[in-house]
Amino acid sequence: MSLYKRGGVWWFKFAIRGQVIRESAHTASKTLAKEAERVQRRKLEEAVNQIPKRERMPLFSMAARDWLEKRVGLTAGSLDRYRHQVALLTKEFGGQLVCDVTWEDVVALQRRRELEGRAPRTINYEIITLRQILKSRGLWAPIGERVKSLRERHDVGRAVSREDERGLLEAVGQSDSPVLLPLFILTIDTGLRASEARSLRRKDLELTWKDGTILAGRLIVPKSKTEAGKGRAIPLTRRVCATLTLWLSRFPEAELDAYVFPHHRVASRGGYAEHHLYEVDLNRPIGSWRRAWKHASSKAQIGYRWHDLRHTFVSRLAENPHISEETIRSLAGHVSKQMLQRYSHIRTHAQQAAIAALEEDAAIESGGIQDDRAQNRAQSERERLN
Fold first, then answer.
1. Domain 60-144 maps to which CATH number in 1.10.150, 1.10.10, 2.20.70, 3.30.910?
2. Among 85, 126, 240, 372, which is least packed, fewest CB within 10 Å?
3. pLDDT digits (tens, 9 = 90+) for 360-371
4. Which long-range contacts does 180-185 make (Cβ < 8 Å, 24+ apart)?
């Protein structure tokens, strides 16, 4: 190892594996030249001995961003969900190194989300995203065994009773979010999933208009989580037509590619008497209406999930013995095994009720015939005596 000066600049010279390394330190400071020589020798020794370079751990925000950028080949809906989860996680851990996230931090996050009223399934989705981010840096294995997923509900939901529906309609109609009412009526009368309603465009509606009013129509589901659900046609009820008439009239400039429920913000006028939509983007779908639904449900003092509206639609179809299972599937799309079991149970009761009604009608008719025969016999007896 040697240092020497040439033209006012320090150079260093050393040998490694018999090869002489002679380089300029690019400095007039002897102290800096010594450090430059030490660093360069260290690099070469690590390369010769195949010692991998230690990766510097980034902030969680940068690690999450890098992970998200590598999510290729996913649908737009999946990417949107990941972006949402990454945004939430960045608020929690963005300012700390990604290697500093501990299992205690993850468990504490689960507890906070539960206190916020998040569903176990929603919380698990967020933790799954966190796991993938940490796993991409080789950091999940040391903490993964101590983090447990929350128990989720796997029932098929429950149907909204007619009485509860009236209470929900009143609360939804008074919501600060004007979109909640048309979304509620459309969902409970068509069985659309939230993602299917969100993806609807004007071109997916086949409407019959007269004097500015929708008289009839149907919708074609453009996107669905299942192949059976995509492209299915659902006729619209009269109240869906009436509600859509009012909702669509808010966007007179909308073209066929515009979303039925576009992204927007809401401002109140006249002490919440009137709601004004602004920053409307017809080419961008609405985000989440979970907060508005939660507030309306709480106001009505009725605890239903939004997905229960779909179960209500299918249950009401199943309660009618004259509607075939094939028709139910064509309207609802994919129906899971659990749902089929429940709806088969509903259908059995509906069929039994239909047979009981037939028997009752037959009994009444039979009783009427017997009464007529008794009256005829009595009349004949009176005539014989006379």
1. 1.10.150
2. 372
3. 766 666 665 555
4. 180/289, 180/292, 180/293, 180/296, 181/243, 182/243, 182/244, 182/246, 182/247, 182/261, 183/261, 183/289, 184/309, 185/239, 185/240, 185/243
